Amino acid sequence: MTPGKWIAWAAASGAALIFSLPLFSVTATGASSTSNSKDDGRGTCYSCHEEVKALKEGSPHAQLACTTCHSKLDEHLKSYENKPVTIIDQAMCGSCHKMEFSSSMAVNYESPAHSEKGIPGGRSPVMDKLLAPYGFTIEHNEPRSHAFMVTDQFVVDRFAGGRFQYKNGWYGVDAVGKTWDILADKGPDFKMAETGKGGNPTCIQCKTSDHILKWKFLGDKDPKATWDRTSDVIAVAKDTHNPVGCIHCHDPHGTQPRIVRDELINQIEKGSTMFAGKDGKTDLKVISFRDGFRKIGIMQKPNATLMCAQCHVEYACGKGFEFDSGKPVGFDDLRTNHMPLTQVKELLAHYKKLNFYDFKHAVTGARLVKLQHPEAETYFGSVHQQAGVTCADCHMPPMKDTEGKTYRTHMMVRPKHHIQESCSRCHPKWTTEQKLYQLNAAQNYVRGKIRKSEYWLSQLIDTYAIAKRFGVDEATLAKAREKHEEAHVLWEWWTAENSDGFHNPQLARESLAASIVASREGVALLNKALDERGKK
């Protein structure tokens, strides 16, 4: 079988496998009744919640009574204002789907903790200079597995001034579970040196599912919402107890694959075709709850890339400024919850049209965009994406438990450490050593281009400083700043994206080369101006 046929087979088999795995089976441990029961009360619930009935009846979860995940229903029936208690803790799902839950909370020791990007051996050794004075220069770490996504965010030095720390010191760095069983709050007056307070409520929504019933669509203010984009980030953090849960990607009523991240749904409704099929349409049915308070997007077939794109995308979530006026943009503005869903070479133009940038560079004053983690966009258009391979095929491969039963791991493995499970199903003719060698070659090449683009950005910044000191005219300096803005986006995309270019090596090569060209052009025009001044 050819590699192409293997890829097609794996993609088709992967989709079939998802629905055959325990995550979508109905073991129904602790279920109180079946869908044929006349006394489980679901008919009363359905009289108001028709959308829930459509999801639940006929699904693998059809036999589960509403009381399985909801309590205080009697009080709710007496008055709509009395909201029922909804259990959204992933441990509830784990009572039936044991391997999926346990693997999601497993410690992936292949991913080191607090691995700083901005050091000589890190992904971006010159980060402090290139991002000055932005908060990410304080501490910007490589990601770990999902089990740590909340605690890693809260303890990072740029989030809350060092206020949140491990209860057991560094012994707690691999502890998983409830956030505030692991972390301690040192109090509002606590502030460590060389830290920042850059956390914001929107960013937390990608790290947890805890606020799904407390956060209005897009984070807008609403009397019915506990939290919004403008809320006190410390208060939101203290109400965050779990990392992102099962309900981000699987509808609890009927097990259908879904997305819940508001801005992703918003952009697809606006017409984004990044995740569309060959017909130009996205397989997503958007369902509105509570008169638009929340929306979910249900898929007929699982699309792991779309599910992962709820968080693994470039997005704006912090305060910023307008390109044309320099006017501050605060959290009351929708631009602080925005996903461009565009490729790297078009990103700067997109943000200029949106009229939003994050900060000005400390030396050049260039208006810079701070990128996040655009894995999904990077993957779009790649060889693997065009072959129908999704994130799950490589990062959530099928594995066997101790009894030999197959399940899909939810630990989000790094394929280079799991070549047999992640790669060999589609590429059987190559040995593990060969595939790892090929993978490392692609990443080594891209890392080299990242370093070269960093070098030329540094040269641009240094030359600008000299030019300004020697009185080069403002018109020339302005042109140099524009080159800086262009080169910056084309470089930083690849330090924020977490595959070292492997998700799309050709795109990495093209955009990093473009970054180098832009920086060199900026250096050249500044040197020319300096030479002309020296001749006077």
From TrEMBL:
<dbReference type="Pfam" id="PF02335">
    <property type="entry name" value="Cytochrom_C552"/>
</dbReference>
<keyword id="KW-0106">Calcium</keyword>
<dbReference type="InterPro" id="IPR003321">
    <property type="entry name" value="Cyt_c552"/>
</dbReference>
<keyword id="KW-0479">Metal-binding</keyword>
<keyword id="KW-0349">Heme</keyword>
<dbReference type="InterPro" id="IPR036280">
    <property type="entry name" value="Multihaem_cyt_sf"/>
</dbReference>
<protein>
    <recommendedName>
        <fullName>nitrite reductase (cytochrome; ammonia-forming)</fullName>
        <ecNumber>1.7.2.2</ecNumber>
    </recommendedName>
</protein>
<keyword id="KW-0560">Oxidoreductase</keyword>
<keyword id="KW-0408">Iron</keyword>
<comment type="similarity">
    <text>Belongs to the cytochrome c-552 family.</text>
</comment>
<keyword id="KW-0732">Signal</keyword>
<feature type="signal peptide">
    <location>
        <begin position="1"/>
        <end position="25"/>
    </location>
</feature>
